[in-house]
Specification:
Blueprint lengths: L1 E13 L4 E2 L3 E4 L5 E7 L6 E10 L3 E6 L4 H5 L6 E13 L4 E19 L11 E14 L2 E7 L4 E4 L2 E2 L2 H6 L3
Antiparallel strand pairs: 1-2, 1-7, 3-6, 4-5, 6-9, 7-8, 8-9, 9-10, 10-11, 11-12
């Protein structure tokens, strides 16, 4: 068995994996399904039923130590591709050795809000950018775990396409 321990490090890349966006931290998006309340005959009460493959607004937030020109490019009013590459440490209980595995999030994003931060002697700028996530693919050790693309009706978890029937119903 492998026990997850800690994120060892992460980097955010912009423009096809060539440019490191800056130093700081990343808050990955929450996956919150859209839902509708179902009630009526045959149901004891109400059920807040999730709509398969339909998600509320997904946002990611990048917090930077300082202002960088590459980070500010994400503030332009167009879609951008970013890649978050991380390494997480696990403890192998059989061997007694710590191991690491790759965690990668590929996202297509658009800027919602930019906080330029402050300029103060001897301190970081507290710059941040909040981005709307149009699509996200989460890959752990080369295995695709999540693939959501709102604009193209994609909702896959562990290789299962939960939008397949809906797309057939729509003639897609």
């Amino acid at each position: 068995m492998k026990l997850p321990q800690v994120i060892q490090d992460a980097r955010v890349y912009f423009d096809g994996d060539n440019v490191v966006v800056g130093q700081g931290s990343v808050a990955l998006p929450s996956l919150q399904a859209m839902s509708e309340t179902v009630k009526g005959a045959g149901i004891a009460g109400e059920i807040e039923m999730p709509l398969v493959g339909q998600y509320q607004s997904m946002t990611t937030k990048l917090d930077f130590t300082t202002i960088s020109s590459d980070a500010m490019k994400l503030s332009s009013p167009s879609a951008h591709d970013i890649v978050v590459r991380g390494s997480q440490q696990l403890f192998n209980t059989s061997s007694g050795v710590s191991e690491s595995e790759a965690v990668t999030a590929f996202m297509k994003v658009m800027c919602k809000q930019s906080e330029l931060g402050k300029l103060e002697k001897g301190s970081g700028s507290d710059t941040s950018i909040e981005l709307e996530v149009l699509s996200i693919r989460l890959v752990i050790n080369n295995e695709e775990i999540v693939n959501i693309d709102k604009c193209n009706y994609v909702c896959e978890f562990g290789g299962v396409d939960y939008m397949a029937q809906l797309k057939r119903n729509l003639g897609m």
